[in-house]
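Incident review: delayed structure delivery

Summary: a single-chain prediction request sat in the queue longer than the usual turnaround. Root cause was a stuck worker, restarted by the on-call engineer. No data loss occurred. The affected request and its eventual output are reproduced below so the record is complete for anyone auditing the incident later.

Affected input:
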Amino acid sequence: MNDSELITAVKQSVTGVHMHVPTEQIVSRSRTIRARRRIPGAAGALAVVAGVAVAALLPASHQPSAQLAAWTVIRQADGTVSVTIRELRDAAGLQRKLRADGVPASVTFTGQGNPACQGYQGSGTQSQRRQLLGSVATVREGSPNVMTIYPAALPPGAGLAIAAAMQNYSGPRDSIELTVSLVQASPRCTGS
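Output delivered after worker restart:
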């Protein structure tokens, strides 16, 4: 269910609900409750100062970032991009976020490749291209749904094709496995 479907469902569920309590009574009651819950001024100021001090001490790589239920993309201070996929959904959103963070990418799920993407030929043998790919993107050992991308290591005219698929290891939980390959960058494949 996406946001617009959720909003529509909520609107429909409260369509017949009407308020019978006067507005003045609601406002008066809320003011009374807020007054009881107010933190004394000194304690509030102390909390603000402590929060600013903690934020100032955090290194740049630990700054807050957007985290979605399905996946997280964090651009680190050193230029690398960390990707964690928890659920196989919203490939287009993940693709937009990667591109916004400087990674020319095509993202698909469950083996549905982008037909506009062509394999990266580049110079060298297939083995040399695999070695190049290892310097561009690494999947974390023991955690196949976490990847680090090094956009600066991408050769000119190259992008990434990222495919995420469910893997059943006949254990207590299924796992998501990422497959990454180099492709020719193009507007229809990688957005650039």
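Verification: The chain has five helices and seven strands.
Action items: add queue-age alerting; document worker restart procedure.
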